[in-house]
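ok, trying the design again with the full structure, not the truncated one.
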């Protein structure tokens, strides 16, 4: 049901600044930029997965609040699933706490939903079903 790590989300104060590290210092390509409903996102594909740099659009958005509490850094790990509705149902049935009871739209028009970190050893896990091509 879970295929791979879809991406690793990194919370930053400024995506343009953070891109410099990945592009200029580490030599990785930035292949896209998008404003998802809540965040400015930069995409850095790496092997079969990618890093997503996330900057909150609103000063009190989830990413901004995360940075206030914990500083910049890894925010979540996204797991790619075939059928997010089914995955959410199964995880709920197995007793995991969900942040999102229903999927919502993420970057690249994917369907996403977050699991609560209290049930996942402190890791914020995102389920991600990519938009069908
Ligand atoms: Zn994500």
């Amino acid at each position: 049901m879970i295929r791979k790590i879809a991406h690793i989300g990194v919370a930053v104060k400024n995506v343009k600044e953070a891109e410099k590290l990945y592009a200029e210092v580490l030599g990785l390509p930035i292949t896209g930029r998008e404003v998802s409903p809540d965040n400015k996102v930069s995409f850095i594909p790496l092997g079969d997965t990618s890093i997503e740099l996330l900057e909150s659009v609103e000063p009190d958005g989830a990413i901004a609040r995360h940075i206030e509490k914990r500083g910049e850094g890894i925010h979540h790990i996204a797991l790619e699933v075939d059928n997010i509705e089914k995955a959410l149902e199964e995880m709920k049935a197995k007793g995991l706490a969900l942040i999102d009871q229903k999927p919502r739209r993420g970057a690249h028009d994917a369907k996403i939903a977050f699991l609560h970190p209290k049930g996942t050893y402190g890791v914020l896990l995102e389920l991600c079903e990519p938009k069908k091509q």
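Keeping the full-length input from now on. Residues 19 and 30 are 7 Å apart (CA to CA).
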